Every structure is written in C-alpha cells, then in structure tokens.
C-alpha cells in the first residue's frame, strides 16, 4: 500500500501489529509495541491538514488505511478510526488557535486522542447525559461526571468530551431518533489535567481487548473557554461529521472480514482443500461478501453527499454484519480446529462482534434509518 509517498507500511509494521493483536487478546491491555508502531508511523496525523504538519488524507484514503490496519490488528484500527473522527471535528469546528494548539501535537508528536462520550446507564443515542459543564466564576468551565467504554482511554493524551449544558441552553428540540442533542457541547480536555482520573486497567471485554477501552472520571475539572470545541446545534452536526464525510467504522469490519477470509485460505493451503467443491464455494462466498462490503465503504465517498449520513448508517450495519457472517462461515469451514480457543478465528470473531456494539451501535443505526422514512403516502403505482 503506497499512499502518496508519506507512508508505506513495510512487513515489519504488519508483523508488529499481528503479533501485538495476539498478545493483547491474551492480556486484555493495549500492546505497547503496536501502539508505539502506530505513533511512529505518522498515521495519527494522516487526516490533519498539511498546514498543521499532517498528510491531509481524504476520508476515502483514510478508510483504506484503517481497513489495512484492521486486517492486522483490529484494536489498533478502532483506536485509529476514532482518533481520526476527532481530528476531522477539530479541523471542521476548531478555531485557528485550537487547530494550532492541538493538531501539530497529533501530526508531529504522535499524540492520541480518545472520545469520552458513553456513560453508565445512558442510552446509545447520547441524548441523556449525566456529565455536565457549568460556567465557573473565572469565565471558564467546570466539568463533572464519568464516562465508560471510552476506546483508547488508558493511553490517550487528550479527550474530546461530550457534556450536558445547563438547563435552558438548548437551541432546538429534536423529534424522532437523533444522535446527541443541541443542549450539549464538546470539550477538548488534557488527559493529565487535574481532576481527570483514568483507572489504569482496561475493561475486560470479549473483543477489541487491545483497544485500551476504559473509564474516565472528571472530578471538578476546570478548563478554559478555549477548550470548548462546539456547542448547541453544532454539537449534533459534529457528532455526525465523520458520517457526512464518508469516514466509516465499516472499514474496520471490512478489514476483519478480510482477515477471516485469509485465515480460511491459509487453512485450505495447509490442508490441501482447494480441490474440494464445497470448500471452494464457501471461499467464493466469503470473498464476495468481503468485496461487497468494501465496495459499500468506498461508495460512501464517491456517491451523492446529500444522503451520506443515512448511507453511512446503512454501511455500518452492512459491513459489521458482513464481518460477523464471514467469521461464522470461516469457523464452519475450519471444522473442529475452529473451535479451539487459541485459534485466530476466535479472536477475529470476537473483534468483529464488538464492532456491532460500537457507536453508533447497530440497533441505533436501524432506528436512525427507520426514523428518516416519510410517513406520508407515496405516489400510486
């Protein structure tokens, strides 16, 4: 993969990620060698504009990179995807001062940003939050609350934090399924800021075990006005921005499906099964599935922009379900070998399932898709 001359991942990069994926699945923690390889690669700055030291990759190229990383190490890929989703929000909604402060740190310093959005007991649509931001007497903000299932939390350098604003600040009342609310805001907060507490251990998850997913507590964290990225109606726009651009979590699912397909191919080579018609047909079906999901991901950045958010939800559901389906097919092809706990297909399968629960989760995507249907009767046919 040669990407505009900036970064050509050699065999050692992929080998580091693959070995790290296996170690992380055993330990349940971020693999240090894989994370260091990611920081040194420059990929954390791939969507930062060249003016701020990045590569300026468009979403289509970023999706291709994320897919390739996911085929080797899905946990690192999910960290990279969510990091890029924050980067594009800073590019779109940040002031010039904010861009000059945060983006070079990412592009030149290899710093990693995490999203702190989900909360214990809150709904997937993020419309009801207990984490709040209140004005303080100095003109800044005081953030209080806690977040959970924050990918990269245990190793992030700073966070983008979704908070509820004081009552009466909403600018619009949403009807039907939405993602986030206009009475909310997004802040950029240093991981080392006083009052930010991140438990050292990641959550003991079944999949994406090397993603550093954990909890973050904000105990009376004071930040300046300059840490406010956006508020009001811009918050819901910012939440959906990656989808509007065509940057998609579906790329991770495609990489996982590709890894599962290649696992089946390797099994067939080792066992001399390419001559068996049943095995050939099943391999053909998994290749078709991978290619179809990849085409759907690519279509996001080439098709019309006016319905891209809706299509992004469709692609997320389709790609994540494809990942799970391909893993299931491959496990069946492997026979008894596929049911050994240590087999790679089980790690890949757990990671593929995890994507269906990541924001927006599949059930919320379906609600958001259905909520856009026009109840008015259509033309007679």
UniProtKB/TrEMBL annotation:
Q: Which InterPro entries match?
A: Acyl-CoA_Oxase/DH_mid-dom (IPR006091), Acyl-CoA_Oxase/DH_mid-dom_sf (IPR046373), AcylCo_DH-like_C (IPR036250), AcylCo_DH/oxidase_C (IPR009075), AcylCoA_DH/ox_N (IPR013786), AcylCoA_DH/ox_N_sf (IPR037069), AcylCoA_DH/oxidase_NM_dom_sf (IPR009100)
Sequence ranges assigned to domain Acyl-CoA dehydrogenase/oxidase C-terminal in this UniProt record = 248-360
Recall the GO molecular function terms of this protein's record.
acyl-CoA dehydrogenase activity; flavin adenine dinucleotide binding
Q: Which residues form the Acyl-CoA oxidase/dehydrogenase middle domain?
A: 115-221
Enumerate the spans annotated as Acyl-CoA dehydrogenase/oxidase N-terminal domain. Answer: 17-109
Enumerate the UniProt keywords alphabetically.
FAD, Flavoprotein, Oxidoreductase
| Names of required cofactors | FAD
What PANTHER family is this protein classified in? ACYL-COA DEHYDROGENASE, ISOVALERYL-COA DEHYDROGENASE, MITOCHONDRIAL-RELATED
Q: Which family does it belong to?
A: Belongs to the acyl-CoA dehydrogenase family.
Name of protein? Acyl-CoA dehydrogenase
Q: Which organism is it from?
A: Amycolatopsis coloradensis
């Amino acid at each position: 993969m040669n990407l505009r001359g900036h970064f050509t991942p050699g065999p050692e990069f992929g080998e580091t990620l693959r070995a790290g994926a296996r170690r992380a699945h055993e330990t349940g923690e971020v693999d240090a060698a894989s994370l260091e390889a990611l920081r040194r690669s420059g990929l954390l700055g791939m969507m930062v504009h060249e003016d701020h030291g990045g590569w300026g990759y468009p979403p289509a190229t970023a999706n291709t990179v994320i897919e390739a990383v996911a085929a080797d190490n899905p946990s690192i890929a999910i960290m990279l995807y969510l990091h890029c989703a924050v980067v594009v929000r800073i590019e779109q909604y940040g002031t010039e001062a904010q861009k000059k402060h945060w983006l070079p740190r990412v592009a030149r310093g290899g710093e990693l940003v995490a999203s702190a959005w989900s909360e214990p007991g809150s709904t997937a649509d993020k419309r009801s939050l207990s984490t709040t931001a209140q004005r303080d007497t100095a003109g800044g903000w005081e953030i209080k609350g806690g977040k959970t299932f924050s990918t990269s939390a245990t190793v992030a350098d700073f966070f983008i934090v979704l908070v509820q604003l004081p009552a009466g600040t909403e600018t619009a009342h949403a009807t039907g399924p939405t993602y986030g609310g206009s009475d909310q805001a997004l802040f950029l907060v240093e991981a080392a800021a006083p009052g930010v507490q991140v438990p050292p251990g990641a959550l003991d998850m079944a999949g994406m075990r090397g993603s550093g997913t954990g909890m973050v507590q904000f105990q009376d964290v004071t930040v300046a006005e300059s840490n406010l990225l956006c508020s009001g109606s811009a918050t819901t726009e910012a939440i959906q921005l990656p989808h509007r651009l065509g940057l998609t979590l579906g790329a991770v699912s495609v990489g996982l499906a590709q890894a599962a397909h290649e696992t089946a191919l390797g099994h067939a080579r080792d066992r001399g099964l390419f001559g068996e018609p049943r095995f050939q047909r099943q391999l053909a079906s998994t290749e078709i599935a991978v290619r179809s999901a990849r085409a759907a991901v690519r279509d996001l950045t080439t098709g019309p922009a006016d319905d891209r958010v809706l299509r992004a939800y469709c692609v997320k559901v389709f790609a994540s379900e494809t990942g799970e389906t391909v893993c299931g097919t491959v496990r069946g092809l492997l026979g008894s070998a596929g049911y050994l706990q240590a087999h790679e297909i089980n790690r890949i399968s757990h990671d593929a399932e995890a994507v269906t629960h990541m924001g927006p989760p599949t059930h919320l995507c379906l609600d958001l898709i259905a909520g856009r249907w026009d109840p008015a009767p259509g033309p007679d046919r």
